[in-house]
Amino acid sequence: MKKVILLIFALFVTTTAFSQGVLNLLGRSQDFFKLLEEQKYTEAYGFMDSTFKAKVPEEDLKKYGHKFQRN
Questions:
Q1: CA 34, CA 40: separation in Å to the nearest integer?
Q2: Each residue's pLDDT tens digit, 41-55
Protein backbone atom coordinates (compact mmCIF):
# COMPACT_ATOMS: atom_id res chain seq x y z
CA MET A 1 0.00 0.00 0.00
CA LYS A 2 2.85 2.39 0.83
CA LYS A 3 4.46 1.73 -2.55
CA VAL A 4 1.23 2.61 -4.37
CA ILE A 5 0.88 5.86 -2.44
CA LEU A 6 4.53 6.69 -3.10
CA LEU A 7 4.09 5.97 -6.82
CA ILE A 8 0.99 8.16 -7.04
CA PHE A 9 2.79 10.97 -5.19
CA ALA A 10 5.81 10.70 -7.51
CA LEU A 11 3.57 10.84 -10.58
CA PHE A 12 1.79 13.88 -9.16
CA VAL A 13 5.06 15.72 -8.48
CA THR A 14 6.53 14.99 -11.92
CA THR A 15 3.30 15.95 -13.68
CA THR A 16 3.16 19.20 -11.74
CA ALA A 17 6.79 20.01 -12.50
CA PHE A 18 6.33 19.50 -16.23
CA SER A 19 3.03 21.37 -16.40
CA GLN A 20 4.47 24.36 -14.55
CA GLY A 21 7.51 24.51 -16.82
CA VAL A 22 9.82 24.29 -13.82
CA LEU A 23 12.50 22.48 -15.75
CA ASN A 24 12.49 25.19 -18.42
CA LEU A 25 12.86 27.89 -15.77
CA LEU A 26 15.81 26.07 -14.22
CA GLY A 27 17.53 26.01 -17.60
CA ARG A 28 16.96 29.74 -18.08
CA SER A 29 18.34 30.54 -14.66
CA GLN A 30 21.44 28.46 -15.36
CA ASP A 31 21.90 30.37 -18.62
CA PHE A 32 21.55 33.66 -16.74
CA PHE A 33 24.23 32.81 -14.18
CA LYS A 34 26.50 31.44 -16.89
CA LEU A 35 26.29 34.81 -18.67
CA LEU A 36 27.14 36.58 -15.42
CA GLU A 37 30.16 34.32 -14.93
CA GLU A 38 31.30 35.13 -18.47
CA GLN A 39 30.82 38.84 -17.71
CA LYS A 40 28.25 39.23 -20.50
CA TYR A 41 26.12 41.60 -18.49
CA THR A 42 24.18 43.10 -21.39
CA GLU A 43 22.93 39.67 -22.48
CA ALA A 44 22.17 38.70 -18.86
CA TYR A 45 20.22 41.92 -18.38
CA GLY A 46 17.99 40.84 -21.26
CA PHE A 47 16.72 37.95 -19.12
CA MET A 48 15.13 40.41 -16.68
CA ASP A 49 11.51 41.53 -16.85
CA SER A 50 10.43 45.14 -17.09
CA THR A 51 9.78 45.58 -13.35
CA PHE A 52 13.34 44.56 -12.51
CA LYS A 53 14.74 46.76 -15.26
CA ALA A 54 12.78 49.72 -13.90
CA LYS A 55 14.37 49.32 -10.46
CA VAL A 56 17.88 48.16 -11.32
CA PRO A 57 19.81 49.84 -14.12
CA GLU A 58 22.15 47.79 -16.28
CA GLU A 59 25.15 49.62 -14.83
CA ASP A 60 24.37 48.21 -11.37
CA LEU A 61 24.30 44.70 -12.78
CA LYS A 62 27.72 45.32 -14.29
CA LYS A 63 28.93 46.85 -11.04
CA TYR A 64 27.83 43.97 -8.80
CA GLY A 65 27.87 41.12 -11.34
CA HIS A 66 31.35 40.00 -10.32
CA LYS A 67 29.92 38.82 -7.00
CA PHE A 68 28.08 36.01 -8.81
CA GLN A 69 31.26 34.47 -10.14
CA ARG A 70 32.51 31.20 -8.72
CA ASN A 71 35.75 31.16 -6.80
A1: 9
A2: 889 888 888 898 888
